[in-house]
Amino acid sequence: MANENENLTVRERQAIQTRKNLLDAGKAIFLENGFQKATISQMIKRAHTGYGTAYVYFKNKDDLLIVLMEEVMEKFYQVAEQSFEPKSKGEAQEQISEQVRLFLMLAVEEKAMMNVIKEAIGVSQEVEQRWNLIRERFIERISVDVRYSQKKGLANPTFNPVLVARGWFYANEMFMWDCVKGDNLFSIDDVIMNLTQLYVDGLY
Amino acid sequence: MANENENLTVRERQAIQTRKNLLDAGKAIFLENGFQKATISQMIKRAHTGYGTAYVYFKNKDDLLIVLMEEVMEKFYQVAEQSFEPKSKGEAQEQISEQVRLFLMLAVEEKAMMNVIKEAIGVSQEVEQRWNLIRERFIERISVDVRYSQKKGLANPTFNPVLVARGWFYANEMFMWDCVKGDNLFSIDDVIMNLTQLYVDGLY
Amino acid sequence: MANENENLTVRERQAIQTRKNLLDAGKAIFLENGFQKATISQMIKRAHTGYGTAYVYFKNKDDLLIVLMEEVMEKFYQVAEQSFEPKSKGEAQEQISEQVRLFLMLAVEEKAMMNVIKEAIGVSQEVEQRWNLIRERFIERISVDVRYSQKKGLANPTFNPVLVARGWFYANEMFMWDCVKGDNLFSIDDVIMNLTQLYVDGLY
Amino acid sequence: MANENENLTVRERQAIQTRKNLLDAGKAIFLENGFQKATISQMIKRAHTGYGTAYVYFKNKDDLLIVLMEEVMEKFYQVAEQSFEPKSKGEAQEQISEQVRLFLMLAVEEKAMMNVIKEAIGVSQEVEQRWNLIRERFIERISVDVRYSQKKGLANPTFNPVLVARGWFYANEMFMWDCVKGDNLFSIDDVIMNLTQLYVDGLY
DNA sequence: CATGAATGAGAATTCATTCAT
DNA sequence: CATGAATGAATTCTCATTCAT
């Protein structure tokens, strides 16, 4: 506990704090202005650091957002990582349904940040690449679940798990962006029900 | 003499030609440099017109791309507009499969232009909005097909046609961007087969 | 018809004027602040043009200075281009002496600008290259004179005209920079006398 | 000799080593990147020292280069300091010729470093001043030689030794920079021969 | 002796767009 | 219908140097 800090010199602790200040300030500025309009100037001003300091810790604006993005996505990973060991089609549907709900809810909770991220994905090569990595991680996890269900004789074994996982995630991701955008044309529950049912009916 | 009419006609013809030159030059420049790096300068230079001329025909760079985009999407609309009146689940699967194939093939054919469009969607509000409109048009058309199948007793009537159509299109669209990106991890045929089967098995 | 031409000419005339304004302003700013400290901002401000305008006419600060430099060097070229057709060693010494005098006088006259140029040569690759070109032009001209004297039997024919011309110009150039620098340790007349005598005694 | 080090405390020895590391690293970095692109960062990294350490030993980047420059110039001084006591014009020409050869050869040997120095002279006031000092030292030495020859009745006594020495060194210096630049348009031997002959024929 | 976190000045530059001709 | 000279906003990112530890 206290040991952790004892291992660090005063200098190191200050450095960590400075980085954190920058991250916090960056997040606030991004949320206020969006990705493109946000400037490093604003951030260092709010973090009470010097101009060069930001560049000690982050290569540039994109880089800072990526760190923030990973932080947010951490929560999503936890949802994706949930154990999935259904014993029947019914159980599968229930669990998948629940996972989709958590996924969308999380997105809605982090709505503001997700919108910044979406903007950044379109604008910054680097951020887009990072998002693709994140996506692949989700798809990979879903593939495992599909394979599990196939092995257990619950899911149609003729499907290619990777392609199914990919298609399934794509639909979810796009609905997620819809939810985040805010002009909610549909109830989230309707989306979940229809989406899951179609998937489960098709796959299982 | 019919001089006046002929003069007007000549003028009109010149105008049409100028517009076409601009469009052709614009397309070439977009394909060479991508959306952001492309400049109006380059375009008017290649079209052998003056700076201001481009603005006679197009509101701005985004506007020019949108015209180009609509031109390309016209072909896609034709695929979407194909009659869909299956008499059995088998026929449905066959027809949907074929439609997906045409959709993806078209995208691959127009690969270069689709990549420019993708870039522009991320960067330009206007283009993004236009793309959303295009997307809605596709989804609308699919909804009609779903409803038809439900009415005919082929498709599960408990599904919300709009949500199903949307989810289905989202998956297709994302795979389309994958195909267009070029690092083809999967065979298009595998994608089509798995995607269609899952959809048809789930819906019908 | 004539009107159209006049309109075009008006435009062109304005453009030429704008360019001239920029050049004049640029020169003034360079003289006031030196090469490195001078900024395009200051120049456009003094020329009463917009920021972008400067970049319509000049690629960058270096480019603008090069134009100014060529303007100044034009006067030097005229000295170098003077006819040189001595009939005796005495005449040669007299003419060379006179040329060196004009060369150094000119440099002293344009002292301020020459100092800017010297600074720029050290700092900007482009300017340095341009200066090398200018130098070669002088050396080339001197070579011609040396060859003339050799042909006339006045100068020692065993010397390589190009190398002699180069060495001779180098010494002159360096003394020129000394004169321009201002801490005149020597009288210009002494420099001319000694330099020319050594050269003429050696070569003729 | 080894005593010198034995007299030093561990601390002092470490300090000397650190300084040497910095100097070596600095030289390597300068040679790799040129003067302007070289950064202190790179140097301290390669020398395995901390940021501040470099500033314990050197006032700044220019200062470090000056130390390196003096080291290189030391060899040149030795050439300049060679005894010069010719008994005839022939001997003078021979000795001067040899000195020029050594001078140019040395420059070519240290080509890489000389190029860095040239860049630095143009960019840094401090380095330029130091170079001027070095130059004066050479000129001073040559003046002594000229005076010696005049006293011995070998050289024309009407010449101002200081001005002759200066002109002579200027020509040599400039040819030296040419040799160092690398696009060798002339054979070094031709340069030496022509240059020396002109000088000796003129002066003696 | 050694360190390294923090600093901050500041000039260049682009290109879509306008509007007078 | 066509032109093209003029505009100008606004952020980036570097790196030598300092000084508290």
Largest interface, by Cβ-Cβ below 8 angstroms: which chains and how many residues each? A-B, 31 and 31 residues
Mean pLDDT of chain A: 92
Q: Assembly state here?
A: homotetramer
Q: Using only CA atoms, what is the Rg of chain A? A: 20 Å
- Strand share of the residues of chain A? under 5%
| Element pattern of chain A in H and E | HHHHHHHHHH
Number of helices of chain A: 10
> What spatial form of chain A do the alpha-carbon principal axes imply?
elongated
Name of the level-1 CATH class of the largest domain in chain A: Mainly Alpha
- Percentage of residues in helical conformation of chain A: over 70%
Structural class, judged by helices and strands of chain A?
A: mainly alpha
User: Segments of chain A where pLDDT lies below 50 for 5+ residues?
Assistant: none
CATH topology of the largest domain in chain A: Tetracycline Repressor, domain 2
Q: What is the straight-line distance between the termini of chain A? A: 48 Å
Architecture of the largest domain in chain A, CATH level 2? Orthogonal Bundle
Largest sheet of chain A: none
According to CATH, the homologous superfamily of the largest domain in chain A is: Tetracycline Repressor, domain 2
